[in-house]
Amino acid sequence: MWLFNSSIGRKLVMSLSGLFLILFLTFHLAMNFVAVFSGEAYNMVCEFLGANWYALVGTLILALGFVVHIIYAFWLTIQNRKARGNDRYAVVAKPKQVEWASQNMLVLGIIVVVFFILHLAQFWYKMQFNEIAGLDLGVDPHDGYQLILDTFSNPLFVILYLVWFVAIWFHLTHGFWSAIQTIGWNNNVWLTRWKAISNVYATIICAGFAFIAIYFGFIA
């Protein structure tokens, strides 16, 4: 199948999975921002998205999209290195139009994944998984608001999350428009526009998440 046997197909799969994760980030930010205005409303959202079948299905789909994106990212990186052969060791000047993020997408991706695992351990494991498995963690899986307060009361977590958001910002500023280019919107006019949209979107998303971390770390 050409999606697996060709480099274009693999890039398309990685791009589509990346755009899917971008949609999730948008939803996740909107959900988390509720906590800034009302702890009770946020807990209602957490209860709605707890161990219900539709929440579990959504979690599985999200996990699949994330795994597919990671696998294809490594696959394409290995493929590109094999294609370049010994030339990848040659010292050459980077073209001015090549972004720093595009040269370090794999490293940025690894940072994002490592912190994502930390995030899962800190929130998903203590909330949805806790509710499903009935664990005795000393945490109310329906009181997500209190968990946010407890987590960001530690300044170390605030700093770690801010580092994570910076890595996501760099990853998104290149990944967003690159995915759009892969699916076909790559004429000169729209490519420039999509690059601008990618920068604006990444800034709004990451600034929003950073605001939440800072708010609960130093204000709330």
Summary?
This protein is mostly helical and 220 residues long. The chain has a single domain, classed as 3 helical TM bundles of succinate and fumarate reductases (Up-down Bundle), CATH 1.20.1300.10.
Summarize the structure in words:
The chain crosses the membrane at residues 12-33, 53-78, 105-125, 156-180, 200-219. The chain is mainly alpha-helical and 220 residues long. The chain has one domain (2-219): Fumarate reductase/succinate dehydrogenase, transmembrane subunit (3 helical TM bundles of succinate and fumarate reductases), CATH 1.20.1300. The protein is built from ten helices and no strands. Helix 2 packs across helix 4 (53-84), helix 8 crosses helix 10 (188-219) and helix 9 (155-182) runs antiparallel to helix 10 (188-219). The termini are far apart.
Beta-strand fraction estimate: under 5%
The Cα radius of gyration reads 19 Å
- The residue ranges in which pLDDT falls below 50 over 5 or more consecutive positions are 88-98
State the oligomer: single chain
Mean pLDDT: 83
**Total individual domains:** 1
| CATH class term | Mainly Alpha
CATH homolog superfamily = Fumarate reductase/succinate dehydrogenase, transmembrane subunit
Continuous helix count: 10
* Largest sheet geometry: none
Q: Which fold name fills CATH's third level, the topology?
A: 3 helical TM bundles of succinate and fumarate reductases
Q: SSE order in H/E notation? A: HHHHHHHHHH
DSSP helix fraction: over 70%
**Class derived from helix and strand content:** mainly alpha
What coarse outline follows from CA principal-axis ratios? globular
